Amino acid sequence: MVLVALVAAGIWWFGIRDASAAATDPVTRTVAASLTTMQKSVGGSGTLTPSVQQDVSFAVSGTVTAVPVAVGQTVTAGQTLATVDTLQLTADLLQAKANLADARATLADASGTAQVAAAQAQVDVAQSGVDTAQAAMDDATLTAPVAGLLTAVNLEVGDAVGGGDGPTADAEAPFTIVGTDAWEVVVTVSDADVALIEVGDQAEVTLDEATEPVFGTVSEIGLLSTGDTGVAAYPVTVAITGDQDGLHDGVAAEVELVYERRTDVLTVPSLAVTTAEDGTTTVQQTGEDGELVDVPVTTGETSGNVTEIVDGLAEGDEVVLAVFTPGTGGSGRQVPELPGGGMVFEGGPGGGPQLRQGGPADG
Question: Where is the CzcB-like barrel-sandwich hybrid domain (predicted)?
């Protein structure tokens, strides 16, 4: 009976001791070096606007005879917006054609080099008159130069319109067409950053209250500074590309102008990288016996929370990101700080883990 009790006690003591030892063994968290895309960008903000916003006016004078469209209507390129009477225009065209016929008759009767040259000049002038009169006749029907939404129709049948840029020209364009299938954002970029950007660069546009970004390309870079604070800044126009459903005029937009993008860049989390005072850069890996081994690496650029590895690692290589040591009896056990002041784990009350921030000042 006594022997059995002693054996049982021995099993209990060794079992508890082994469990306690296992509970205090460090647990290493690793992460694999992986390929990613790294980019550099310049940020800015602006407002979404339609790329097409065009005022349309008559190029001829006359009285409006028809306005077959209304505000809010979507029109296609070439669709009739309005017409004016053609009585005077028809008379002008007939007179121009008569002048051309007379000039051609004179040319046919001309003799001698000088007479022929003069007659030919008259024919050319008369032909130009016919072309002008015909163009005016064609302009009696005002058509939409682009497709879009009519946001202004300031014209009624019976109104008098005056074409051209003279004193009889319309003070306000009778029609305004806004495109609904092409959008842009104009952002202001500082003098220091605008030199980094080129036409054709890609852009990521985050619209106010949108869940997903839209994309675009730099379509124009202004040559004149628009800065009003004494600091030179230039307008950069981004043309939105891809799916444009659901876009609206006047929406606030945050824009990232990407001027450099590299794909398949080998990276590890920056917390896994340590740089010594002498400039030597290392990561830690787990050796065959479970010990931590410092591995020299050559780093490149840092983007967000990852660092580029130029040399020293290959894709899939595991590097140490954190070391967790469970506590014992609620007191816990401190582990060495992670490289670069990263996160370390200590044993918490009752042997549970607790997370604390490591740093160079801890010691």
Answer: 55-162
